[in-house]
């Protein structure tokens, strides 16, 4: 772990002015138990050995780094992909879900509760629940249920109860609200397994730590392949778990530029995008402080992205601090650029990416055209199986 990740968060879960735990006292008691349990077992040989065994024999880690030669020849630059789409269940989400499931088992919890947008976190948590013999309840907005139908079916087959959320915009923010409410009813026997580096302490730290495996593997693999570290690392950012996973091994790396790609959606008008760091300001949501898209009263603004896993008005507190310290460049990508990249990778490399990952890929293609002599490592955080019905219906085969 690099010095930055060792330095943050502090004992109260603060990443500079961001993070913390802004929750009711009764719930804070339960959250403190989770924090104590995590600190207790995360350094234990037994926990680490079991998690490593799961990653090797169940998840199929390490996932490879792949040189996208055809795409690179077309764009210039050298584009490499960290293939998290090959992680079991098809995305990076299982990295922290298996860790959270193992923690829940250690604490004697009976039920896992979570929200999901794109469905990948829901599928991953349902998988973890099945593995550890726990109940699972997934809250999902009705808009996302319609868009991500394949993942909804997968969750149900895995034994999870999928709770449709019908209020507000019926997407990710509302799903988080609903899951929190369900958790508040029974925080003793259940645990809320947050799906990104967001929420009250210890979740931003805990999810980052479980996702660090992506960066550790990628760094070692890239050096083995090329003899050096990458010139650029690119990842999409909604809440920001996949990005923190890969960035964690390259923060403060000399000569390496980091890019977090936010969803610009249909444009810059409020409600047409979810580019939180680009257009937001410090605020509070779901029990923590971060950059937040908000109205004049400080309430979260409506957001939108073609990628259901990115349409969240907040962002991880660590990303908020990294932006202020100028350690990561936070940029954006529109729906159209995302769709172009989705088809480009599919047709040129035979890899269908998740729409979330296609945002990172779109920016990497743009970067490759500008930096023709530099290497670009993209965290391909998920595969596009979940998106193909929606994309084909709206855009055809192209």
Task: Write a structural description.
46% of the residues lie in helices and 18% in strands. With 398 residues, it is an alpha/beta fold. The chain has two domains: 13-55 and 94-204, Rossmann fold (3-Layer(aba) Sandwich); 60-91 and 212-395, Rossmann fold, CATH 3.40.50. The strands form four sheets. It has a six-stranded mixed beta sheet with strand order 3-4-14-9-10-13, with helices on both faces. A four-stranded parallel beta sheet has the order 7-6-5-8, with helices on both faces. Strands 1-2 form a two-stranded antiparallel ribbon. Strand 11 (281-285) and strand 12 (288-292) form a beta hairpin.
Itemize the secondary structure elements and their pairings.
Elements: H1 3-7, E1 14-15, E2 18-19, H2 25-41, H3 45-59, E3 65-67, H4 69-75, E4 78-83, H5 94-107, E5 111-116, H6 120-132, E6 135-141, H7 142-147, H8 149-157, E7 161-165, H9 172-185, E8 190-192, H10 203-226, E9 232-236, H11 241-247, E10 257-265, H12 276-279, E11 281-285, E12 288-292, H13 317-324, E13 329-334, H14 335-349, H15 355-370, E14 375-380, H16 388-395
Parallel strand pairs: 4-14, 5-6, 5-8, 6-7, 9-10, 9-14, 10-13
Antiparallel strand pairs: 1-2, 3-4, 11-12
Q: Characterize the biggest β-sheet.
A: 6 strands, mixed
Shape: globular
| Level-1 CATH class name of the largest domain | Alpha Beta
Order of helices and strands: HEEHHEHEHEHEHHEHEHEHEHEEHEHHEH
Proportion of residues in helical segments? 40-55%
Q: Helix tally?
A: 16
Radius of gyration: 19 Å
What structural category characterises the helix and strand content? alpha/beta
Mean pLDDT: 96
Specify the CATH architecture of the largest domain.
3-Layer(aba) Sandwich
Number of domains: 2
Q: How is the largest sheet built, in terms of strand order? A: 3-4-14-9-10-13
